[in-house]
Amino acid sequence: MKRFVFLWLMLTALAPAFAHEVQHAIAAESAVSVRLTFADGQPFSFEAFEVYAAGSDKPHAVGRTDAQGRAVFVPPDTGELRLRAFAADGHGVDIKFDPPRGGEAVAAVVPEDRGAKLMFGAGLLLALFGILQLFVRRKKTP
């Protein structure tokens, strides 16, 4: 009886140890790497990102970019992806793309010219100010 109690105590003491074990498996898979940089060329390092499959509200992958600003993940078998990367200070990106299949490389889309956008915005503000001045001067004239 003492042996049975001792054996039972030993088994119950060891059982919780197996519950905390973490299993692992190593496999070679085809991953996608998206490199993110700020406008000045500095890497978007150690910032959070989320990857969504087309039509899904639940993230397919989440993580942080590495020191070179790369978001690396294994894509689903088919479909378009949406990558959202964001920093605590508000900077970020939200892009949609078809991931490369079978080791092919995909060129990034060239972003719009920032200088042209600034000039357009400044011109729009000046035009609105000029129109406002015309209406103000008309009301003052008797």
Describe the structure.
The chain has 142 residues and is of the alpha+beta class. It has 2 domains: 82 residues, Immunoglobulin-like, CATH 2.60.40.1120; 31 residues. It contains 2 helices and 6 strands. Strands 3-2-5-6 form a 4-stranded antiparallel beta sheet, with no helix packed on it. Strands 1-4 form a two-stranded antiparallel ribbon. It is elongated and about 115 Å long. The mean pLDDT is 82.
Largest sheet: 4 strands, antiparallel
Termini, distance in Å? 114 Å
Task: Compute the number of structural domains.
Answer: 2
Number of strands: 6
Assign an overall shape.
elongated
Kindly report the CATH topology of the largest domain: Immunoglobulin-like
Per CATH, the class of the largest domain reads: Mainly Beta
